[in-house]
C-alpha cells in the first residue's frame, strides 16, 4: 500500500470521523487513520482499530455527507469488533470445506472421481455460503450502527444511501471489473431497502451539510485531484474560467506537478490574498518556493503555518527542512529544535528522521546522526538496517545515556523482527 501523509487530508477526515467514534464509545486517539494513494473507491478496517481510506474515496464522491456515511459505517465495524468475528467466521466456514475435501478424496480414491469432485465442490459451496451469510449480517449491523451515530451527531444518512445505491448490483460483475468498494461491500437491493427505511425515519434525513462541513471536503477533493491525477486532466476538470477556491487550489497543485512553478505561485497567492492565515495555503506557498530554490522565501510561509497550527508535525518537519537548507549556523540549530519537536509529536515521520540525521551531522554529532538514521529505518520496518545503525550509534554515544539506551531498545526490538535475529 502506498500510504501518504498530508496534514490537511488527515485533519479534514478526522473532523468527520472523531465525533462518530466518540458517539460509538470509542477513543479517537486509539483509532489510527491511514490514507492510501489509490484511485479506487474504498475504505476498510484492519487490525481492529486501523482505518484505511483510499484517496479515490475522496476524489470520486460528490458530497461530504457521502464520505461521512462511509466513515460512520466503518465505525460500526470497529465498534462491533467485526474483524475479530470475521476471522472466527472464516475458521468456522472452513470446517465443511475440509470435511468435503476429505470425503471427496476418499470417494475419488474408491474409483468414483466424478462423484468425489461433486462432494468436494459441495463442501466449498457450503463454506462460501456460510461465510457470505455472516458477512451480509455484519454489513447490515454496521449500517444500523452508522445510522445511530449519524442521528446522534445530527447528520443525515442519505449520503451513505446514495453511495450504496451507486453500487447496487455491482457484485454480479467479475472481480476485475468491480470497484474495490463493491467487492468488499456488496450491496443487494434488500440491503438498500432496509437502509432507506432507516434513513427516512431519521429526524435529520433531509438535513444538508453546512458550508463549514462541505467546503473543507471540496477543497481537499480539489487538492487530491491535483496531486493524484495527471496535471492535464486536472486542468481540464478545473479550467481557468472557474475562479472558485477549490478550482484555484486544484490548479495550483496541477501546475506544481507539471512543473509550472510561476503559475502555481500565482494561483496560491490568489488564495492567500483572500485567506492570509490559511495554514494549508501557507504550507503550499512555502513548498513551491523551496522547490524553486527560493529557500529564504519559503521559510517565512512555513514558519507562519506552524504558528497557526502547532500540532501539525508534517508541516513542522517541512519547516525544519527548509531551515536546514538555508545553510546558516543559526538556522541549522533552529532546524534541530523544530525537527526534534516534530518527531516528539509523531515519531513515525521517516523523512523527519532523515532531515534530523543531516542536521546532527552538520552540528558535529555523529552518534546522534547514526541514531536518527536507525530511527528512520525502524519507522520504515527495515529492521536489519535499523540494527546496524543503532549499533554504530552506541559506539559513539556515552554508555547509559538516554540516547544510548534508545539505540539498545531499537536493536532489541528489531532483532525480534528479523528472521535470523542477526545484525549482519
Short note summarizing the structure:
The protein has 424 residues and is mostly helical. The chain has three domains: 3-201, Zincin-like (2-Layer Sandwich); 211-371, Alpha Horseshoe (Serine Threonine Protein Phosphatase 5, Tetratricopeptide repeat), CATH 1.25.40.10; 372-424, no CATH class. It contains 20 helices and four strands.
Question: What is the H-and-E element order?
Answer: EHEEEHHHHHHHHHHHHHHHHHHH
Low-confidence stretches: 84-100, 125-134, 171-177
Write the CATH homologous superfamily of the largest domain: Metalloproteases ("zincins"), catalytic domain
CATH topology of the largest domain: Zincin-like
What class do helices, strands and sheet pairing give? mainly alpha
- Mean pLDDT equals 87
CATH architectural arrangement of the largest domain: 2-Layer Sandwich
Approximately how much helix is present in the residues?
over 70%
Q: Which percent range describes the beta-strand content?
A: under 5%
Structure commentary:
The structure is a single chain. This protein is mainly α. The chain folds into three domains: 3-201, Metalloproteases ("zincins"), catalytic domain (Zincin-like); 211-371, Serine Threonine Protein Phosphatase 5, Tetratricopeptide repeat, CATH 1.25.40.10; 372-424, no CATH class. 71% of the residues lie in helices and 4% in strands. It contains 20 helices and four strands. The chain has helices at residues 7-23, 55-60, 64-79, 82-109, 113-152, 158-166, 180-184, 189-201, 211-228, 231-237, 245-257, 261-274, 279-291, 295-308, 313-326, 329-345, 350-362, 366-380, 383-396, 402-417, and strands at 3-4, 32-36, 43-46, 50-54. Strands 1-2-4-3 form a four-stranded mixed β-sheet. Helix 4 (82-109) packs antiparallel against helix 5 (113-152) and helix 16 packs antiparallel against helix 17. It is globular and about 65 Å long.
